[in-house]
Aminoacyl-tRNA synthetase class II (D/K/N) domain-containing protein
Amino acid sequence: MVEPEIAFADLQDDMNCAEAYVKYMCKWLLEKWLDDMEFMAKSYDKGCINRLKMVASTNTNLSITLYLTSWMIFK
C-alpha cells in the first residue's frame, strides 16, 4: 500500500503521488531487474512483464483493479 504523506494535499494530489510512485517502481523493475522479472515470467506468471509495461506507460489515472492486478505479481 502506498501512503504518501503530503502536507496540505487533497485526495487528487495523493492519487497523483501514489500513481507516480507505482509507475516509477514498474519502470525501475523493468530497467534494473529485467532478468529476474523474465525468470518470474517463465516460472510463475507469464503476463507480469506486460502488466508492468502497461502500468509504466499509462498516462491516465489507473483503476483500482489494475493497481491490484499489478500488485499481485509482487505478492
